[in-house]
Structure formats: C-alpha cells, structure tokens
C-alpha cells in the first residue's frame, strides 16, 4: 500500500469502542461533496454523467485542492499561494475562506475578467502575471517563498491526485458495474492522474480513459507518443482552463499500458457540447468540460464497441449565460 491510498471517504471513519489500540486522530471531513451520477442515452451508449460541476467550488478541483489545503492548514501554514487559469484559483480561494487562511491567486492574462471578479469575491488577492498559466506559475512560486506560505499547484502534486481519486471511489458505489470507459478533459493532467489512481483503487483494470484535449492545447498526445513531456510554444483554446504548455511529468509513466486513449477536439465541438448539455440537462458547463463531452456527442471512434461509459462533468465555473447563448447561435 502506498502513501497515496487513503480514501477521501475514510475521513469519516470512527474508531470502534471495542478496540483499545491507540489510533491517530481522524482526518477532518473533506471540503468536497459526493456528487450525483445522472444517466442518459447518447447514440448507442448508456451514459453516466458525473456532475462535479455541482461541487461547492463548481469544479472537481475542490477534491484535490481541498485535500492539499487541509494538509497544509494542519501544519500551521498562514497563507496559500496558487497559480491558476481559473478553476484552481477559485477552489483555493474557496478552501482558504473555509479554513480561515488568506489566499493569493496568480492568474495569466487569458483568464477572463469575470473569473478574476469571482475569485476576488471570495476574499482572495488576485494578481495577473504573463500570457499563459506557466508564466503565472513562475510568479506564484516566487511569492510562495515567503515564510509560513504554502504553494498550491493546480494539477501537479500527489495529494491533489489522491483527492481527485475520490471521484472514482464514488463511481464504484454509484455504478452497477465497471464502465467500459471514462471520459475526462486534460490540461495539466491532475484529473487524469486522479482518475487513474481511482481506477487502481477500485480494481477497474479494464476501464479505458478517453482523455480529451483541445486541438490548440494538446500536450498529452505528443508526449505519450514521444515518451517524454512535449512543451507547447503557444497553447490556445476557448477552453482556457486547459491551456498549459506542458502536462504533469508523472503522466508519462501513469499512462503506460494502453488504458489511456488521447483524443483532440475543436473549440467548436467543445462549445457545441456545452450547448447540448445545457439544453438536455439544464446545466451550464464550461468549454473545458465541453471538451470531455465532445467525443461522446460526436460518437468518436474511440468509443466503438462500448456499451457503458461515464463522462466527468468537470466544471461549470468558467462560463457565462451570454457565452452560452452566443455558442448556440
């Protein structure tokens, strides 16, 4: 058993009154919630939509970020510093407010103004540095050198992946049997690493992961093809949450064995998926989430021969009603 096999749900474990063996204090309750799984038919597929857009911070990010922030809070950290294109910063700001710890979020120029406002509304200090997330991250790392300060990365930390793994642990309780595939969006790869850890924990060895990336910001596919991290010169997509120059290095080894199938989608396909999900399920989702759903709605060849799939509805924060209306025109 590795140090990362602790389940988020085990935070609620209680010591038996019949066991006199001393035990360590229980972890506090996680900041994330158990999200619903709703079912639908899409083409020939039985689909479960895992609604992590309904997390308190409106994306899956709170699973891992909440776990990491609680870890540092227990060690007396006095400030969190985060780099983010949007969702991670909002999740850190939310966690910081819940834990009573000040937060500084460093964002790139591509982060939309309404997201800056939303993050600041949670009480976080917001700074803008550079054109893409990687530039903002360099600035955040410098700020995090201050005493009693913890750097909270958006996707590249084992405790983040441990927290994200709770999504699959929940699925194992919500699904009658293992799905043939799980669809996820990929930017830096934190969610993908968490899903892979979760699959290992619950023993779903034959479940594929369809890893969807925007065409203009696809680092996973070339990195896996070359067996090393491929850095993009200028990632660009309407799915700004997924625009990073490079994936987490841990993905190279984690994706070995053929479980992960990388696919790319266009911005138009991601936008169309957002509109379709809103029309069919009455919920707003952002283009990063639309990226995960696009292969499903397009009946992508990677889904051939499958019967049961789960699509991770990863977030509904980086979107407005006006954008959704424009995409539907």
Describe, in plain words, how this protein is organized in 3D:
By secondary structure, the chain is an alpha/beta fold. The protein has 2 domains: 30-60 and 159-327, Rossmann fold (3-Layer(aba) Sandwich), CATH 3.40.50.1100; 61-156, 3-Layer(aba) Sandwich (Rossmann fold), CATH 3.40.50. It contains 12 helices and 10 strands. It has helices spanning 61-73, 87-99, 113-121, 133-143, 158-164, 166-174, 190-202, 220-226, 250-254, 267-281, 287-297, 321-327, and strands spanning 37-42, 45-51, 79-83, 103-107, 125-128, 149-152, 181-185, 208-214, 260-265, 308-313. The N and C termini lie far apart (52 Å). It catalyses: L-serine = pyruvate + NH4(+). This is L-serine ammonia-lyase.
**Can you count the helices?**
12
Oligomer: single chain
Average pLDDT figure: 91
Question: Which class best fits the helix and strand makeup?
Answer: alpha/beta
The CATH architecture assignment of the largest domain turns out to be: 3-Layer(aba) Sandwich
**How many E-type strands?**
10
Radius of gyration over alpha carbons? 19 Å
Q: Which outline best applies?
A: globular
Q: Would you list the SSEs in sequence order as H and E?
A: EEHEHEHEHEHHEHEHHEHHEH
Overall domain count:
2
Domain Tryptophan synthase beta chain-like PALP: 32-315
GO biological process, one term: L-threonine catabolic process
EC number: 4.3.1.17
InterPro entries: Ser/Thr_Dehydratase, TrpB-like_PALP, TrpB-like_PALP_sf
């Amino acid at each position: 058993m590795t140090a990362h096999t602790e389940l988020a749900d085990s935070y609620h474990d209680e010591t038996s009154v019949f066991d006199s063996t001393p035990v360590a204090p229980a972890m506090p309750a996680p900041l994330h919630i158990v999200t619903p799984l709703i079912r639908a038919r899409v083409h020939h597929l039985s689909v479960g939509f895992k609604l992590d857009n309904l997390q308190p911070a409106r994306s899956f990010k709170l699973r891992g970020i909440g776990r990491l922030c609680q870890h540092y809070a227990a060690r007396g950290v006095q400030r969190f510093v985060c780099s983010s294109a949007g969702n991670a910063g909002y999740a850190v700001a939310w966690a910081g407010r819940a834990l009573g710890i000040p937060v500084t979020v460093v964002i790139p120029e591509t982060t939309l103004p309404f997201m800056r406002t939303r993050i600041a509304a949670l009480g976080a200090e917001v700074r803008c540095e550079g054109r893409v997330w990687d530039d903002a991250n360099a600035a955040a790392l410098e700020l995090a050198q201050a005493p009693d300060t913890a750097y909270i990365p958006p996707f590249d930390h084992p405790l983040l992946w441990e927290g994200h793994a709770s999504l699959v642990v929940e699925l194992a309780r919500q699904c009658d049997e293992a799905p043939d595939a799980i669809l996820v969006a990929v930017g830096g790869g934190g969610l993908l690493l968490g899903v892979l850890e979760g699959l290992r924990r619950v023993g779903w060895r034959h479940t594929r992961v369809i890893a969807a990336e925007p065409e203009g910001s696809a680092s996973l596919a070339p990195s896996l093809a070359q067996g090393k991290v491929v850095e993009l010169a200028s990632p660009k997509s309407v799915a700004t949450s997924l625009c990073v120059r490079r994936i987490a290095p841990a993905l190279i080894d984690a994706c070995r064995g053929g479980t992960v199938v990388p696919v790319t989608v266009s911005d138009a396909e991601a936008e169309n998926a957002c509109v379709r999900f809103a029309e069919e399920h009455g919920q707003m989702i952002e283009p990063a989430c639309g990226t995960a759903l696009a292969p499903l709605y397009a009946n992508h060849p990677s889904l051939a021969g499958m019967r049961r799939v789960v699509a991770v509805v990863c977030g509904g924060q980086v979107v407005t009603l006006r954008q959704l209306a424009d995409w539907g025109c």
